[in-house]
């Protein structure tokens, strides 16, 4: 989606709008001394002209990522609100469909916009239903979780932009190891819960004080994942990758935001429950 501010600038102007304009090179002639002076001026203009922008060359831009991420979040919010009002019980269907589509999109080499939008819709059904359920238990908990999610996202972006947190190979390896450990921990908790070992509404390892501690660790991992996402997008833009990969970037950000929101929702529910 074109921004009119950039559209009105020659630097960011759509190449289609430039068609039919007289090329500077077409004014070059070699007849008289006066013409030679004009040719030199034309060459100076050509050298001073800005290089082709990423938008003109079909390359990834930050605007592409922002717009597609906003679009996916809009789909998620609309479907979530509809599910909250009309059929909260469908959250389990949304969770299963969202999981399947998430895996499909994660392993596809080329992004599929329809599948990614369907993923956002499925996650909207899931989050809308489960949020309605939590809200019925603890009034105001959803607003708390949403505001906390926005805050963590903003802090992560500020830290990344400030350069205070740098994504190095060591940072990435540490994050992958920590997320692997968190995944194993979560699976153990699910198994214990299925076999009735221990207690707690969220399993023996995710309830009470321990549940809050684990949740805060998960929030930290999600925030670190956002910083890695930002760095990946930055490198993609600088490398001039195809614009279609904006869908991949937006998909990755939505996945992380959904995880972050769920962890914060669980933390506030535990605190409110106690």
TrEMBL record:
Keywords: Membrane, Transmembrane, Transmembrane helix. It holds the Pfam family BaxI_1. It comes from the Bacteria. Residues 1-11 have a biased composition (Polar residues). Coiled coil: none annotated. The chain crosses the membrane at residues 65-84, 90-107, 114-134, 140-162, 174-197, 209-230, 242-262. This is Bax inhibitor-1/YccA family protein. The lineage of its organism: Bacteria, Bacillati, Actinomycetota, Actinomycetes, Micrococcales.
């Amino acid at each position: 989606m074109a921004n009119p501010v950039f559209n009105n600038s020659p630097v960011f102007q759509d190449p289609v709008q430039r068609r039919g304009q007289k090329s500077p090179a077409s004014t070059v002639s070699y007849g008289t001394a006066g013409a030679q002076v004009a040719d030199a001026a034309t060459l100076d203009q050509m050298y001073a002209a800005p290089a082709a922008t990423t938008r003109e060359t079909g390359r990834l831009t930050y605007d592409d990522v922002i717009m597609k991420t906003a679009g996916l979040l809009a789909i998620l919010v609309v479907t979530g609100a509809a599910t909250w009002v009309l059929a909260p019980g469908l959250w389990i269907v949304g969770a299963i469909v969202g999981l399947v589509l998430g895996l499909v999109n994660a392993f596809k080499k080329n992004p599929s916009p329809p599948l990614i939008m369907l993923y956002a819709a499925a996650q909207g059904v899931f989050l809308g239903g489960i949020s309605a359920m939590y809200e019925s238990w603890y009034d105001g908990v959803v607003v708390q979780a949403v505001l906390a999610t926005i805050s963590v996202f903003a802090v992560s972006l500020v830290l990344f932009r400030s350069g205070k947190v740098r994504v190095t190979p060591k940072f990435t390896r540490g994050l992958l190891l920590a997320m692997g450990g968190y995944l194993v921990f979560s699976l153990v908790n699910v198994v214990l819960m299925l076999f009735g070992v221990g207690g707690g509404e969220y399993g023996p390892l995710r309830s009470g004080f321990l549940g809050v501690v684990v949740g805060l660790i998960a929030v930290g991992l999600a925030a670190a994942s956002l910083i890695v996402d930002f760095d990946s997008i930055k490198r993609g833009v600088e490398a001039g990758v195809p614009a279609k990969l904006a869908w991949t970037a937006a998909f990755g950000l939505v996945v992380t935001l959904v995880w972050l929101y769920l962890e914060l929702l669980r933390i506030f529910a535990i605190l409110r429950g106690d």
